[in-house]
Protein 1
Amino acid sequence: MEQIKKIAVGDKTVKAYCIPLQSKNFILIKGGKGYIMCGYLNILAAEVFSDAAIMIKGVSTIDQALDATVHSLTVSAARLGIKKGQSVRTVLKLIA
């Protein structure tokens, strides 16, 4: 069953989505300045579109995603101050 969760980040809100697919869940957390995606999406495609995108891996729930760290990121995400290995909870403040 699909899950959508609103997450308060200071005075802003981001939305987290968990969509069950055939073998795994698709996870996406979207803020006003960028998004966090699971391995189902393509970081190179996000780069082509100049998106501020962050990839996390090894997660299948929103809670696991919130406890993850940045696996890879686009140049636009780096311009927001995001770094590889950074915690998702810290990243939320930068993409909200």
Protein 2
Amino acid sequence: MDNELIDKPRSNCGIFGIYRHPQAATMTYYGLNALQHRGQEGTGIVTLDYDTEHNKHHLNVYKGFGLVSEVFKDESLLTEVLKGDIAIGHNRYSTAGSANNRFNIQPFTVNYRNGHLALSHNGNLTNFKSLRTKLQDSGTIFQTTSDSELVLHLIARSRYQDQLDQIEDALNQVEGAYSLVLMTDSALIAARDPHGFRPLALGKLDNSYVVASETCAFDIIGAKYIRDIKPGEILIIDDDSILTGETKSRYIEKNVDKPRYCIFEYVYFSRPDSVIFGENVDKVRRKLGKLLALEHPVGSDDENTPIVISVPDASNTATLGYASESQKTGQNIKFEIGLIRSHYAGRTFIQPYQDSREAKVRTKFNTVKGVIKGRKVVVVDDSIVRGTTAKLLIKLIREAEPKEIHFRITSPPIYNPCYYGMDFPSREELIADRLDGDLEKIKQELGVDTIGYLSLEKMLEAVPHDNGEGYCTACFSGEYPVPIDVETTKEEYEI
């Protein structure tokens, strides 16, 4: 998915791990393919192999820039290079750390006094600046500019002798958002921060255990979803787990009243066929669409039945919810496919237009003119960030000669940057902040007849609360659950 094109917050990262499977690297490859939407800049796989000749463990590493299918296009990499029955993988989009630094591509690996360690991280550490400065002052040499590397250094420098104690010690020092999968010489370890910002799930494939950012990675390999890793949990999978069918857990010592799941995972990030935070994403998105229809209906008349169309693919499910609820409340409205998205346009192509952004929009999207012409059109989308691409998309729809265009958004206006693993532009670039939340000005800039955002109250109504779940809504409300390093700007989080 070209996030720059559709002007959405960039996805964070996707992580995957598998323990004791004869085709560990291949299973990881497929899992990362299913998680491709969470990061497209780079990808990597690390496997643990045992060298019988020298009687020691060995890490096999392969990673590079690009999509999973591009980096691992040579099948022999999975069968001949990445040997071993334990593996972890990572899809990267940089939220902290230079995108162009090859050393920032995960998984990260280290060999220290307790053996090998490999790490994949999804999220952002909010106290990384102070921790990095402290470690550098004490002589630590960093190989990357990524906040994730801090965790490995904290483990290696821990005063504890036992490796699990070292990992727990390190995680008690970091703040912010992290879903982690760690590989040691004898275990696969999964951990989530006490607030549970980012999703992380546990599954099983035959007798092997699997962990992944989303359950869609289980589906592609035929694994069964067991449960989510709990907020604050450090889950240990080892050979005893294979024998007994039970994992072991520790918990991070932080006083947190309730989880703060990232609500944007439901709105946009996660795939609709995934279960995250214990709920099916498709179900939540349909409810978002239904509540949007109740809050911002578009009236119909006898002469012109309104049509509702999605901006494919992210808002497809929510659009179905909007259409069904509109019909249920007696509105004469019809769901139609009015925009076609090309799935074969590459990430780079010849740009025949002076405005390259407009060229990208026209290459990715095309209107079904016979559906749109002369109709009252309701366009449902999940969010508006800068508004630049939305403006071009509306222009494209206008060229199909609709009678009216009504823009409906299944989330509130975005006013604030995120420090927990999403990459929004600076506050000044956000259309809602730039235009002071004035809906009339936003409507005029986008070129639509009306605009309606789902309220924060209704968005929170759409997500599960069965077990006392709490949600992070900082990008909408400005309420940050975890403090940020003092005097640290958004830009400094992208060193």
Protein 3
Amino acid sequence: MTRPCREWVNASIRRIEMERMRSAETHLLRIDLPALPGLTLYLKDETTHLTGSLKHRLARSLFLYALCNDRIGPNSTLVEASSGSTAVSEAYFARLLGLRFVAVMPRTTTTEKQAEIVANGGEIHLVDDPGAIYATARRLADETGGCYLDQFTFAERAVDWRCDNIADSIFSQMAAEEHRVPTWLVCGAGTGGTSATIGRYVRHRGLPTRLCLADPLESVYHRHMADPRIRIWPNGRSVIEGIGRPQVEASFVPELIDRTIAVPDAASIAAARVLSQFLGRRCGGSTGTNLWASLAILKEMAAAGEKGSLVTILCDSGDRYRSTLFDDGWLAEQGLSCAGYMAQLEQLLAPTPATARTGRNDAAYGRPVSELAATLAQGR
């Protein structure tokens, strides 16, 4: 590959840095839990990024990493293997630099995500076997003489874990709270980049906060944590897009994780739906996985008489899953039932004046759960 013009690289980096400066920091939502006195849940709301998800941070870092390593030039075709959200964000940054972008994704990726990629100027290449996305992306990059961005390899090294990252933002925002140093941080892992960033940050700052991996039941990661010899779980097919993998990715750093909680898909979907009712706007399935694991830890803390805070991540909007996780017909086709899990969650996230003041959407407050659920299902 011909080395790109240094002037073009410098201009491209400046363009991305200008985008970063224009982007406001994402919100930290406080959720008081009357059923668990002395404990507070916080949601780092990454949906407010310009491309609507946590992956906006990763895409920016991957582009800067590739530019600073002379992997991208003014005529490069950029290719990525993705379940959707990273590709949405990368399509945005590719358009910012005037470059062609191709997303290689499983055919099961939601049509809503596919539409967002196209709306951001990207192209889509679907494959039937989810495990084939890596080789296909690499092949397409080779055939075009382009750059395979390879989030699953470069995520943990492209993000600066010492500063200017999601962990830095969380702890800065928590500084004025009652329990300013959270007892736990909970996140999922797709590439493993976010968990690596958080784990390294808390060690670098000498913080006592512990890190929990919330992992879909059909993912390999919690199995690998229990037995490092397990690196592939070929039969695992979780419907929770964006987290959980059939193989241990290069960016996953298990040594930085203090515990794991495996979450059934039905529980993740139930949690996404209940939180959506609570906030008055849809939340995605990976957020549901995070919430289920977070509430499990908070209930343990309550039983032990502990007080404190826990922070987890609101990863992306549930509008990207209208045709799947929020469609009762689709759930029935998958053989998934959420009713029992939803009943458990609604006891902890019951509507109260306190929760309305500390994180709920005012428009949703006071409306019956059944009415709000119907409204969300109809897309209003």
Protein 4
Amino acid sequence: MKPGAFTQLYTHLIFAVKYRERLLTKNIRDEVFRYISGIIINRRHKSIIINGMPDHIHILVGLNPDDKISDLVGSIKKNSSVYINEKKLFHGTFHWQDGYGAFSYGKSQLNNVYSYILNQEIHHK
């Protein structure tokens, strides 16, 4: 970010496992989400919360304006897929589905978005 620049850019990212397969089981989710958080931080964004269900993921991120959203999502998908496959976190090959959703929010909306992401299992019952 440029000296003297101040931004508050909050984005909710959503994307799915290829074919909406239910591969992100509870026993691997925390490890995968921690890894994804590291990717986000290494790209100089703020990782606020990551959660999801077996077939999709939700990420709330404070964006670094020097990085394009499409590049961030591409990096998350590529690097997390490699990680999951190299660590053999399940039998078979893991891939993310093409595409993603990205929704922007103001600071006053963050608590509601955070709660929504935190409570994915309740929301999807």
